[in-house]
Write a structure and sequence with these properties.
By secondary structure, the chain is mainly beta. It contains no helices and eleven strands.
Length: 127
């Protein structure tokens, strides 16, 4: 299968919240660092979070720090992204991705070294 499937996106007002989920099948996430990315039409993809394989270390860019929280449940092969205090500029398709490493590394915010990608889930924040 080798598949990641995101869910939980939707339309929210500014200040609203969503919980995005990323479920893996065909492989285990135990030994993968996991990242969340987002991309809007005409804009470049950007990393919004990463979590180490053990869940003990996380990374966020300044644009989302304090508002987004990544977590994982290795027993259920699932990664989550809680997005709070949403702004219109958060509108994008959100993707999860798996990289075969314990840690996120210094290049976690790029698409390099991620083996598996989900199909994305749309988050729309109305103005």
């Amino acid at each position: 299968q080798l598949q990641l499937v995101e869910s939980g996106g939707g339309l929210v007002q500014p200040g609203g919240s969503l919980r995005l989920s990323c479920a893996a099948s065909g492989f285990t996430l135990t030994y993968y660092a996991m990242g969340w990315f987002r991309q809007a039409p005409g804009k470049e993809r950007e990393g919004v979070s990463c979590i180490s394989s053990s869940g003990t270390s996380t990374n966020y860019p300044d644009s989302v720090k304090g508002r987004f929280t990544i977590s994982r449940d290795n027993a259920n092969n699932t990664v989550y992204l809680q997005v709070n205090s949403l702004k219109p500029e958060d509108t994008a398709v959100y993707y999860c991705a798996a990289r075969p490493s314990r840690s996120c590394g210094s290049s976690w915010y790029t698409g390099l070294f991620y083996d598996y990608w989900g199909q994305g889930t749309q988050v729309t924040v109305s103005s």
